[in-house]
Each structure stands twice: as structure tokens, then as C-alpha cells.
Amino acid sequence: MAEQKSYTYKAAGVDIDAGNQLVDNIKPLVKATHRPGVMGSLGGFGGLFDLSQVNCENPVLVSGTDGVGTKLKLAHAMNDHSTIGIDLVAMCVNDIIVLGAEPLFFLDYYACGQLDNQQATQVIAGIAEGCKLSGCALIGGETAEMPGMYSGGDYDLAGFVVGVVDKTKIIDGTNVKAGQTIVGVASNGPHSNGYSLIRSIIEGTQADLNQAFDGSTLGKKLLAPTQLYVKPILDILATETDIHGIAHITGGGIMENINRIVPVGLAIEINQHSWQRPAVFDWIQQQGQVDDIEMLRTFNCGVGLCVIVDNQQVESVIAQFKSHDLQAWAIGQTIEHNGQDVVIK
Q1: Which of 21, 144, 192, 230 is within CB 3.0–4.6 Å of 111 for a Cys-Cys bond?
Q2: Is 0.85 surpassed by the pTM of this model?
Q3: Which residues have a Cβ under 8 Å from the Cβ of 274 and sit 6 or more positions away?
Q4: In terms of Cα–Cα distance, which of 297, 312, 310, 302 is closest to 344?
């Protein structure tokens, strides 16, 4: 009779010891993100946060979740996983700041075929850095090792954030009216959107990611992490500047995202020549022969966030973004709807 084979979880592709080592590696990274309200420590079944420690009279919780899409493929191609975690945090916290919500805590989900502790630690270090830069605590997450689901060094990321806003101060576009100004705030590049198109252009043109480009390399410019807008917006709101609407320019680009906060009966008019577009977008458009409308509905094209304000506050708002080393421009206005949701000049 044949001897029965002895099976182990490690032989099947899941290394529990490696997972425990990763937790030990990231504990100091996680601790460095703590803020008032955090309870307990990493390793429990759930993360605890004491809402009574937050200075908010009428607290409303705001949640958001996102990933970084196929930008992960570019991180692999560049063998640089140091900033992709910042992207993950930014894509989530930038979504809730548009409601005026201060991010409180963040959780991540890291899934891979075989756990590479060095790579995973690098990714989570980026997540911790993104949390620190946005004043948000990293209080937990999940590392899933799934052989057969992911091949080679592939991994995927998802993030989840919870924030708080006073019920009386929620920014939802209700007060947006015709004749107000749209202020665009500079992006760092494509952020985390449009990378399937970007990778298609790279493959089709056989572009060298290590070629010198705009003071750096093409690959580094394309890998630049998503700009975090949390602290600038919170600082502006603390001055009681009257912001009527905020839009995070993500998938759908400028063409679709601003209209998400504009009431029925209104449209937007955008002057596409009113801001300075980073050179990387020129490269994308030229190398891919991408037309103007396709660019504006796929990428942020240099404008990662838009705020809608009264005309008399435009200069003040631009100056406040500048104090955070962020360029901003008056890029358009809200108008009465005349059959087009977006009018491009």
C-alpha cells in the first residue's frame, strides 16, 4: 500500500510564519500613524476608534473605498513599490474630503500569490506615509496569500477609509448656482486613473521607461503618487471660506466628475487653456494620438481637484492652496444648462 502523502499549508503555498513576520515589520509603521481616538493595537480581530475624542458637535460618518487599478503593473515594471501605498490612501481620502470630511482611520487589503515580505513592507510603508500626510490612522488591514489566484510577484490593493463631518457643514453641491467659479488644483500627473490606456501606449510604442523625461525619467513621472488634498481643504474650511462644491477628478476625468456635484439645471464651462498641463500628459496625447475629448474624459490632465466658490473668493482660495505649495487656477464657471453638460472652450 502506497504511503499517504503528508500535506502542509506552507507546501500548498501559504506561509503563516511569513505573514506573522510581516505584521512584526509593519507594527512601528502603523503606530506612527496613530491620532487621538485610536484604541488598541495591531493584531486584533477589529480596529477600535473612540469617536468621543473627535471635536465635532453633530458627527456624521463618511466612508470611502478604492484601489489603484493597473498602476500596479507600472510599479512592477519599475520595480518600485514605495509610493503605490500613498496612491491607495489618496484615492480614498480625497474622495471623502470633497464632502468636508476629516479622515479618521484607514484599513488596507493586500492580496498576493506568494508573500514577499520586503515588497509588502514597502507597500505598507507607503500606506502609512499616506495616512500620516492626511492625518489619518492606519488601524488595521488584511494580508491574503492566495496561490493560484495571483501569479509571480503580482498583488492587488484595496483601501477603506472612515471620516467625520459636522452634519451642518456637509459639502454636497446644494449651494452651487450659475455664475460661480470653478477653481482647479494641480495634480501630480495621472494619479491612479487611465493606466490601462497608458500601458497600452507604452507597449504599442515600445517606450523606454528609463528614458530621461522632464527632469526625471518617464517611468518615475508616470509613477508619481496621487496628490493628497486633505490638509489644504481642511485648512481652507477652518477659515470658514464658503466652498459650495468639491470634486475629486478621478475616472471620467474633468468631463464627468465636476458634474457629479452640480445640481440639475446647471452645467459647467471649462477653459482647457487656463491651467498648466504637466509634460507627461503631452507625451501621452502625442504618443497615443489621443484626441482632446478622450484626454479630458480619461485623465485629470493636470487638475486633480476642483472647488466651486463665489467669484469674490477666488483669489483668496488660490492663495490658500499656494500656501500649501499647490498651484491653482480659475478654470471655468457654472452656467445654466443649454443642452450640454460640459462646454469646453
Answers
A1: 144
A2: yes
A3: 184, 329, 330, 331, 332
A4: 297
Q: Produce one character per residue of 125-151: b if its CB has 16 or more CB atoms within 10 Å, e if not.
A: bbbbbbbbbbbbbbbbbebebeeeebe
Rounded distance between C-alpha atoms, residue 8 and residue 65, angstroms? 35
Q: Three-class SS of residue 24?
A: helix
Round to whole Å and give the CA distance between 220 and 239.
Answer: 36
Q: What is the pLDDT of residues 263-309, one digit of tens each?
A: 999 999 999 999 989 999 999 999 999 999 999 999 999 999 999 99
Strands (E), 219-302: 243-248, 266-270
Cβ–Cβ < 8 Å for 166, 60: yes
Set of cell numbers at residue 293: 475629448
DSSP structural state of residue 271: -
User: In this structure, are residues 185 and 229 in contact, taking their beta carbons and an 8 Å threshold?
Assistant: yes
Stated length of the chain: 345
Q: Nearest to residue 306, comparing CAs of 259, 241, 251?
A: 259
d(CA 211, CA 152): 26
Q: How far apart are CA 242 and CA 313, in angstroms?
A: 8
Q: At what angle do helices 230-238 and 314-322 cross, to 10 degrees?
A: 130
